[in-house]
From TrEMBL:
Residues 3-166 form the Hydroxymethylglutaryl-coenzyme A synthase N-terminal domain. It comes from the Bacteria. It comes from Fructobacillus broussonetiae. It is an enzyme of class 2 (transferase). Transmembrane segments: none annotated. This is Hydroxymethylglutaryl-CoA synthase. NCBIfam families: HMG-CoA-S_prok. SUPFAM superfamilies: Thiolase-like. The lineage of its organism: Bacteria, Bacillati, Bacillota, Bacilli, Lactobacillales. Residues 255-391 form the Hydroxymethylglutaryl-coenzyme A synthase C-terminal domain. Coiled coil: none annotated.
Amino acid sequence: MAVGIEGISFYTPGYSLDMVDLANARGEEPDKFTIGIGQSVQTVIPNFEDVVTMGVNAASKLLKSDADRAAVEMLLFASESGVDNSKSGAMFAKDQLGLRDSIRAIEMKQACYAGTFALMQAKDFVTLHPDKKVLVIASDIARYGLKTPGEVTQGGGAVAMLISTDPKVAVINDDSVYESKDEKDFWRPIDSDIALVDGHLSTDIYKEMFMDLWNAYKKNTGLHLPDFKGFAFHLPYTKMGKKALEQILDEVTSTKQAYFMEQLAASQFYNRYVGNLYTGSVYLSLMSLLKEAKGYQAGDRVGVFSFGSGAEAELFSLTLTQGYEDVLAEQDVQGMLDARMKLSVTEYEKVFESQKLDSSDDSETEGVALAAEGKLAAGQCYFAGWKDHYRLYKTAK
Ligand code: CAA
């Protein structure tokens, strides 16, 4: 019985910042950001969006009918930028999505890796319960602070995936290799809204874990690089995927090396215009690869390398299924990216500092006025503000 991804969708908020503008404002060479780091644009998160709204706005694209909603037996919400220290983002999202009460709903965290853990839990659950479906949401905001080295690698968004025995996109193969190591490269203390990071150490750990897992994968499966059509990588910034892939390119001919660099460019395309979205990043890279790469067909094997600082990583493969491109075509990611409003650096800094982090602040977010003016899309979930220290979510009419 084949278990895999029936549907996949992406959402990112409607504001963006050009990395050339950011480089100029910070006194950096634009080429450092666009070539050295490999980021061209990043999504800017307004104060009426958070991991719940983004997750709901991604998942609602997959759940179009009452029957779709009724079929979901479990909601797994992966995030490292959750909205509450106790209550799961899944609980807020469940009601906003109109899911029934008789489901399991939970949040899981391990930096950028948790989305993959959720995916594997979903696969195992559906394998045991073939008539059921699991909704996986991977939603995050990458926030390092103004004028920090990490600023160029900010961003945010959510990827939602429906896992079932009707894998219209890809079968999740039973070939995972994984590794967990206690590392001090990236963390966010409970009293901080920004991540603390040793970016260079993190990069080294990412590269090392990729090699550990690649070698283990080859040993376990007997498969080699030419057995893959392409790879999706966790992309905190797009150069990271290149650093990982270049370590194994000498295993193939120069013609094949050029081929894999082309696949890498396809897998980086969307991420280059969104920035980091932590847990969702590797699955946005997957969507990018499946949409941008040429000549893929049902039966092709695609590798997925998931990494979360701190640190945990997993490498596995997907086998594409008939008609996967139709599912991807339904998601107009490019249209969503193009429709974002471009902000100046001054506007971005204002939005960055306007987040409603104080739960005693009862003032409304900008989303309330925008919804009243009809400037939010009908059906869009937004954070309206705090009431008695509780988060209020609404849906635009
Ligand atoms: N033209 C072209 N390239 C240039 C250039 C120019 N004018 N100037 C510099 N560069 C290149 C550098 O040579 C370097 O390339 P290599 O990495 O290939 O050597 C690249 O630009 C970056 O330069 P620096 O290393 O000097 O940049 P930095 O010190 O400002 O740090 C960073 C970069 C570590 C990514 C930093 O932005 C950061 O800390 N980001 C946040 C953390 C992060 O993303 N870590 C990555 C792995 S962690 C992870 O995966 C989990 C997660 O999601 C966070």
